[in-house]
Amino acid sequence: MGEAKRRKESLGEQYGQEARFISWLPITRSQSEKFMQLTSTGAWIGIGFLIVGWLTVRFIGPAFGWWQIQ
What we know:
The protein is mainly α.
């Protein structure tokens, strides 16, 4: 009997399913990795918007006469 068959018999219905990230949380490892990638990308986009906003308030707005920095 091959190793795969033994593993299939010992695991039963869990055979071929992905392992959970935390046993009591119904999230798999690949889902958690995808979530981390998505949130990291979102954080970098937020940082970019913050920099663009700061440049607008500090330099672009006063240059076009929209407001004055005091």
